[in-house]
Amino acid sequence: MGSEQSAEAEGRPGDPSSATPPAKHRAKMGDIVVVAQGSQASRDVSSDPDVIKLQEIPAFQPLLKGLLSGQTSPTNARLEKLDPQQVLQLCLRYQDHLHQCAEAVAFDQNALVKRIKEMDLSVGVVFSSMQERQKRYARYAEQIQKVQEMSAILRRVQLGIDQTLPLLERLNSLLPESERLEPFSMQPGRL
Length: 191
Hints:
Largest sheet: none
Order of helices and strands: HHHHH
Mean pLDDT: 79
């Protein structure tokens, strides 16, 4: 359908009527294609939790019925009996009450903002001290790691010495008496 219209517009380039769009084609019931027919089975809505919640909401009426519905009724007569000065006083008192509440909330908010800033400073100080402590402990952990590595090296050296000493003693015993060395000892103070 759209391609036919564009083809017609292209076919008449000098025609001034081609600039205005053609009248829209109204769809008829026969033109509508139903892809999937919906199920029309009757549902029991009385057990639906959303419907139950809606039914539990109490009915209410507006305070000034005549103003909302636009109908002239006996309630409009009651509205006319309201004293505008008293309504104005009520509104002014309500405005003053809201102003006082707003001031109280603003005061509390300012106090909270100050306290939050103080806490931010305190947390910043604690955080920086914890970072310094963490760096210091990282250095300690590095040193402990080096000590553990040295200890492992010393254990390997001790194991090497323990394996070498019997061989040394055996070799020493094979030498002639005049060329023998004195027994080897790892004790300090002995030469």
